[in-house]
Amino acid sequence: MNALTASLGTATLALLALAACDDRQVWHAPDFTLARMLEQPKADPYEATSAFADGKTMRDPPPGTVPHDGLDDRPAPVVTRASLSAGRTRYERTCAVCHGILGDGVSVVATKMRGRPPPTLLNPRSREHMYATVTKGYGLMPSYAGMLTADERWAVAAYVQALTLSQRVSVASLPPDVRDAFAREAGAR
């Protein structure tokens, strides 16, 4: 009988627990309008709150995080031969399709974009301007922030600047060793 009494007691407790359940909130028809958004809990970023110990609603970003809502505040990195080489590789894989290998806006894609072809990149611009354009996009060009890291975008900007300078420099103004290398290369052709 002890086992039977224990089973009945357990069954009685289970029935009482089920009877106490209130399922009215669970089985309501969904509201597909946007009106439900007006009645949700929310806080103004500048209001005080009891949700956090410091009383502020707006939170500081966690240490070590990188902002994604704008350009980073760090200065442009120093241009090195390695960064120019990386910038050239990224430029040729990502940008040259539209802007051309020389940055002059001459490409197969450009011939198909009659209404608004990609512009030449050979106009002198600051590296910061190029970085911002690659990061945020401009006109029909999308942002490449999701495709290129910040260092890669800086490298592309530096390479475009070097590409612009290379189209305007005279051979006579080059250092002697570079002039000699050009002369040897021209003689080999």
Task: Summarize, please.
This protein has 189 residues and is mainly alpha-helical.
Mean pLDDT: 82
> How many angstroms separate the termini?
107 Å
- Percent of residues in helices: 40-55%
- Order of helix and strand elements from N to C terminus: HHHHHH
| Number of strand segments | 0
User: Unreliable runs, pLDDT <50, ≥5 residues?
Assistant: none
Label the overall shape.
elongated
Biggest pleated-sheet summary: none
Q: What structural class should be given to the helix and strand makeup?
A: mainly alpha
Q: How much is the radius of gyration in Å?
A: 32 Å
The total count of helices amounts to: 6
How would you portray this structure in words?
12% of the residues are buried. The mean pLDDT is 82. Helices cover 45% and strands 0% of the residues. With 189 residues, the chain is mostly helical. It starts with a helix and ends with a helix. The longest helix is centred in the first third of the chain and has 19 residues. The chain is built from six helices and no strands. Helix 2 crosses helix 5 and helix 4 packs across helix 5.
SSE arrangement:
Elements: H1 2-20, H2 81-99, H3 108-112, H4 127-136, H5 150-168, H6 176-188
